[in-house]
Every structure is written in C-alpha cells, then in structure tokens.
Design goal:
Layout (H helix, E strand, L loop, with lengths): L22 H12 L1 H8 L11 E6 L2 E6 L2 E2 L1 H10 L7 E6 L5 E5 H17 L7 E5 L4 H13 L2 E4 L6 H11 L3 E5 L2 E3 L2 E3 L1 H10 L6 E5 L13 E3 H4 L12 E2 L3 E7 L7 E6 L1 H15 L6 E4 L6 H13 L3 E5 L10 H9 L3 E4 L1 H10 L2 H4 L8 E4 L6 H11 L6 E3 L36 E4 L12 E5 L9 E2 L3 H9 L10 E5 L5 E6 L3 E4 L2 E4 H8 L5 E11 L3 E10 L7 H14 L8 E4 L13 H9 L15 H17 L6
Parallel strand pairs: 4-17, 6-7, 6-8, 8-11, 11-12, 16-17, 16-18, 18-19, 19-20, 29-30
Antiparallel strand pairs: 1-2, 3-13, 4-5, 9-10, 14-15, 15-23, 21-22, 22-24, 24-25, 26-27, 28-29
Bound molecules: adenosine-5'-monophosphate-propyl ester.
Adenosine-5'-monophosphate-propyl ester binds next to α10 and β25.
Length: 655
C-alpha cells in the first residue's frame, strides 16, 4: 500500500491498494503540496517571461498573488511566440459558422488580426486598465478582441450573447466600461440575433459608454449612430503589422467575468495575468494530454469561463489547433457536432452533460452516420455528469476507446480543480466521479461545523491552499469576496458545492449547497430571479427554486404572490416569462410559474428553501438535502403541505 505522506499527515490523498499504479501522479501531487512555490516555479517555465518573478507566491489570506514582480503579456504568450516558430503556419483556429461559412487562421494570421484589432482599440483611446465590454457571437473576432484587449493591458469583460440589454448595462455600469465591442448580428438556429439593437438598448441604460465598436458580420442593417458607433473595419485603416504589447505585472488583472452568486446582483470575478494563464494551460495539459498534432474542440461559448480558459487562453498558450463553432448543436440537424468532429478530425472533445443528454435522447443512429474514430479523449464540464450519460458518452461517442475527463471547477477557480489527469497518468475512472485533485489543489470535505468529514459522508467541499488560477477579487467589492468565499469556513476557500470523497479517495461533486441553480450548466441565483420578477408591476413577492430536468440538469420553478387586484392567468404567466427573459436573458426562462397566496417561511422570515424545492420537484421533503437548514421537521412539513396544495391549485404553464 503506498503511504503517500510519510510525515503522518494523511491529507486527503488516496491510501488504498487501488492506487498502486498511480505513482507518477502521486509523486507529482505530493511535491505540489509539500513545496507549492518550488513546484509552481518549475511549471512557470512553460511561459516566456519579459522579466522573471521575485517571489512565486505572496499569500496574505484571503489574497494570493502569484509570480510577484514577474512581467509578461498574455497576447504575446498566446500568439507572438508561436508566430515566431515553426507554428507560424500551424492552424490556430478552424472556425465554422452556423451557416456553413468557414475560416482558418494560422498563428501568423492570428498575430496579424490581433495586432490590427489592438490598433483599432488604440485609435479609440483604449489603454492599460480600461474596462471593455465584449458582446459578440462565437466568431473569430471574439477571441481576437479578447487578445487585443490583453495586448493593450485593457481588462475585458465578455457578456454572453444570449444576455439581455439590462444584463449588459448592469455589467457595463458595475465595471465602469467606456467601450462596448459588438457585431451587427449573429446566427442562432437559422435566425439572426440582433446584437447591435440589444446593445443600443443597453447604451441607453449605461451613461458611461463613449463608443460602440461594431464588427460587420451578418448582412442585415443595424441602426448606426455616428456619435457613438464606429465600424471596426473603418478603424483598421492604416494598421501596421505590429502593436507593441504592454508588459504587464504578473498580478495585474486580465479580465472580469460576471457570475451569479447568492445575491441579487451578479459578481464581477476578477482574474489575473500570469497565474491564471499558467494554471489554465497546465491544467489543460494535465487533464487532456494534448499533443502538437491534436485537434482540440471545447464547445463552450467564450461568454462563460470555460470558453475563456479552454477556448481562448489555454489552447493558444499551448500552441494547439482548436475548432470553434458558432451555432446551435442541433442545427440544421442533430448530427451537426458529429459532422464537425469528422470534418476536422477532432481528437479531444470537451462539452457539457446537458449536451450529452440531449444527444442521448436522440439516439445513436445520428452518431453511426459519422466516422468519429479520430477521437482520443472526451471531456465534460458544468455540472455533475450522471453515470448513465457518462456510460453513453463513453460507449457511443468514444467507442469505448476514450477516457472521460470529468472536470470539476468554477468561474472563480480559473481552471480545473478536480479531474482525471490523462496527461500525467491514466488511472481507473468511475462514472459520475471527477476522480482526483489536480496538482496543487488541496480539497477537503467539511461538515456544517467545519470539521473534516470521514470518507463516504456528504459535506461541503473546501480548499485549503491557494492555487495560481484563483480569482484575484470580486471587482469593486472586497467585502463580498471575503464574505462569499472565505467566511463560511475561516481559512478555507468555500466553493459552495456539496461533495463526498469515497474510500478510494475519489471525489463526487454533488451540486450546489447554496441558492445557485444550474440550468444547462449555466449558473443563475434564486435571488437574481426573485429580484427580477418582483420588478414586474403585478408581482408582490416571489421565490425561485429548481426541479430536476432530464436534459438541462435543473429547470427553474417560480412561486409568485400577486399584488392585490391582480388575477392569475396563463397570459400573466407568459408575461412574467417574457419579463424575465428581458431582465436577464434566455437562461432565466422558467419552466413553471406557480401562483400562490403565501410562501413557506420560518418564524424569522427566512424562506424555507427546502420546502420550495420539494414541492417544485414533486418530492417528499425528506429527499431534499440542505445540510444548513435549521427549520424544525414539523414546521417544514406543515409549510410543505400548504405550499403543495396552493401549487396544485395554480394553473400550470409550460412554454
Ligand atoms: O456546482 C459546480 C458545477 O458548476 C459550478 C460552477 O459553475 P460556473 O462558475 O458557471 O462554472 C462552470 C464551468 C466550470 C460548480 O460550483 N460544476 C461544474 N463542473 C462540474 C460541476 N459539478 C459537478 N461536476 C462537474 N464536473
């Protein structure tokens, strides 16, 4: 039996016979925890530094600053350094539009495009430290715009192109951005997304916006206001080949990405430069084992963290060839993705459980039409993958030849935290488990009182040590940073997930322990939904929860108390659905809206979330776990019966 840590401190390393073959992983893991500075200092050779760091880690809890004193530029790491080697003519991006248009960009092309874009931004007066909101479809310009901001040291803030005008404005105003980059439109399921029109609405709500930079993509006409709007192509006139990159401090911010938490307002997660880039790149290598001839395809939109880290920064830092697809997975038919895998010979494919379950529901015949034999490794992210979907993915997509790399991580972590490490050593997988921690990641399962749990007991996952991809802060809100991540278990980073570690030391991530709902892997908070729905004039009070969904993982259920004089109706439900889509975006579309007279509350006025969840799911209240819920059983049962009766009376509405 391998005794992993001879010092006697057990840590949470696997300790049974199962792990005999794991020497390589365990040695590396042990080194990473015993001497984090030595370990990460060694790993940092992956990057080319303008100036080496003075100190690997400055850890003043809850703030970790990595590679202090070091300098580099992220766009140089992702583009220039490859364009100077044999990779100059290597394909960086195979892009496929929904309409079937394609573009192929070599590293030399990408270098050229990033510099031209940076030139345009400079002409607009963009400089180091400015915040730039990007609202673009999945076209090469999205990657290029992010890299161009990084080149100038401007902080980008990408807003997913499914979000509403209000959601854009909230992010613009919170980040004090002066410029929005958008396109006249994008394509989704054969329709044109009127992105510029949505931005025009957002600009009306964003007094600080000075310029809107527009990429001409779709053919349709969009309104143009010469005072604020400017075409990207017009600004590129006279662009030379090179824009000098800003040499950034390793600890300077690279981007803000807003994500939902337990408050009504999304938080601006602030990520740094060198630590973030190194962590994203190393974790991709460790988890997926890419080679120079790999064809990498991460299907995420760059509007989410998965797109930031594993569509843009990590694959380009590693000089890989990526596929980027603009559109819907089932357009024009359900085999669009399999078609793309066959066409480009994708070797590593990384997607979400929601997508896998959608394909599974449509049957294997769609797969059989395509040659998927190029595939070598398959990945999953965004929510727990249920064993049934895992098996299907393994058997039918990977033809029982490809390991399934189930990566658990978060917007805040910057990169994978718990995941199989095919690039370090192959070891047995268990369907539904994200397996073992990445090197440098030191997780533990705690009970509600912060005591370490024994194996096989569900508790809260907490992380003991900082890692280089860890968020720098919550933008403009250090109190929220401290409160959200560091106060639940003092001294530990608290991700907010339930988890369990089994006898073999394998980790099982069991969903959110807080008021965050995951719809198709996208994060949305109950508070955000409630805040938005009470903004409607007919609504007095509302409570949001979720119920399990076969494809999406979870679906939103809203309990609504109407104002006096308002009558429940199907029309009103439709109106509330529309209201939410306008206030937040399509992600916020509820599956059900139930009109009730009262909400289940404790004597201190706190909503009994467990009761809402049980009624929404049609489950018994005992089936719904919330380790933190202090409500008495009798109170909860009474509230449960009352709410169930009220919900049954309410008109059911499905969109
Ligand atoms: O609950 C976990 C779930 O997604 C949350 C993070 O969401 P977000 O910041 O939007 O990032 C999604 C992409 C990294 C986590 O707190 N989650 C993500 N991946 C997994 C997962 N839950 C279980 N297994 C996973 N592989």
């Amino acid at each position: 039996m391998p005794t992993i840590d001879k010092s006697g401190e057990k840590r949470n390393l696997p300790t049974n016979n199962y792990f005999w073959p794991l020497k390589r992983y365990l040695d590396m893991y042990k080194k990473s925890l015993d001497d984090p500075e030595g370990f990460w200092g060694e790993q940092a050779k992956l990057l080319d530094w303008d100036k080496p760091w003075d100190k690997v880690l400055d850890w003043k809890p809850p703030y970790a600053r990595w590679f202090v004193g070091g300098r580099l530029n992220v766009s140089t790491q992702c583009v220039d350094r490859h364009a100077k080697t044999w990779r100059k003519n290597k394909v960086a991006i195979y892009w496929e539009g929904e309409t079937g248009d394609t573009r192929t960009l070599s590293y030399a092309d990408l270098y050229h495009e990033v510099n031209r874009f940076a030139f345009a931004l400079k002409k607009l007066g963009v400089k180091k430290g400015d915040r730039i909101v990007i609202y673009l479809p999945m076209i090469p310009e999205l990657t290029i715009a992010m890299l161009a901001c990084a080149r100038l040291g401007a902080i980008h803030c990408v807003v997913f192109s499914g979000f509403s005008a209000q959601a854009i404005a909230d992010r613009v105003n919170d980040s004090n951005a002066k410029v929005i980059i958008t396109a006249n439109g994008g394509y989704r399921r054969g329709k044109i997304l009127p992105l510029k029109e949505i931005v025009d609405e957002a600009v009306k709500l964003s007094p600080g916006i000075e310029k809107v930079l527009v990429v001409k993509y779709t053919g349709h006409e969009a309104a143009f206001d010469a005072k604020t709007d400017v075409w990207l192509s017009d600004l590129m006139d006279g662009a030379g080949i090179h824009v000098e990159p800003e040499s950034m401090e390793a600890t300077d911010p690279l981007f803000i990405l807003y994500t939902s938490g337990t408050t009504g307002k999304p938080k601006g997660i602030l990520h740094g430069t060198a630590g973030y880039l190194l962590y994203a790149a190393k974790t991709l290598q460790w988890a997926f084992n890419p080679k120079d001839d790999s064809i990498w395809w991460c299907t995420a939109d760059a509007g989410w963290i998965t797109g930031h880290s594993y569509v843009v920064y990590a694959p380009l830092a590693l000089g890989l060839t990526s596929v980027i697809y603009e559109g819907a997975p089932d357009f024009p038919a359900i085999d669009r993705w399999w078609h793309i895998i066959e066409k480009y010979g994708v070797t590593i494919f990384y997607t979400s459980p929601t997508a896998i379950r959608m394909f599974m529901r449509n049957g294997e015949d769609w797969l059989a039409k395509h040659d998927l034999s190029s595939l070598q490794v398959l990945g999953s992210v965004g929510e727990a993958i249920n064993p049934e979907a895992w098996e299907w993915y393994y058997k039918f997509v990977g033809a029982e030849n490809c390991p399934i790399v189930d990566t658990w991580w978060q917007t805040e972590t910057g990169g994978f935290m718990i995941s199989p490490c095919v690039g370090i050593q192959s070891y047995p997988l268990k369907p539904g488990s994200a397996t073992l921690p990445m090197p440098g990641v030191d997780p533990v399962v705690l009970d509600a009182d912060g005591k370490e749990n024994c194996p096989n007991t569900t508790g809260f996952i907490a992380i003991r040590k900082p890692w280089p991809g860890m968020l720098l802060d919550v933008y403009g809100n250090p109190d929220i940073y401290q409160k959200t991540y560091w106060s639940r278990f003092p001294g530990f980073y608290a991700p907010g997930d339930y988890s369990m570690k089994d006898d073999d030391g394998y980790w099982w991530l069991l969903g959110r322990a807080d008021e965050v709902i995951k719809v198709s892997g996208h994060r949305i908070s109950t508070a955000e939904l409630e805040h938005a729905v009470v903004g409607h004039t007919a609504v007095a009070e509302a409570a949001a929860t979720s119920k399990p969904d076969e494809v999406k993982g979870e679906a939103i259920v809203l309990f609504v108390i109407l104002r006096k004089g308002q009558t429940p109706s199907v029309e009103l439900k439709k109106e509330l659905v529309k209201h939410l889509r306008t206030a937040i975006g399509t992600v916020a579309t509820p599956e059900e809206v139930l009109f009730v007279d009262k909400l289940p509350k404790t004597r201190s006025g706190k909503i009994m979330r467990r009761v809402l969840k049980a009624v929404a799911a049609g489950a018994s209240i005992g089936d719904v776990t919330t380790l933190d819920d202090q409500t008495s059983v009798a109170e909860a049962l009474q509230a449960y019966e009352d709410l169930k009766a009220a919900a049954a009376k309410s008109l059911h509405h499905k969109e």
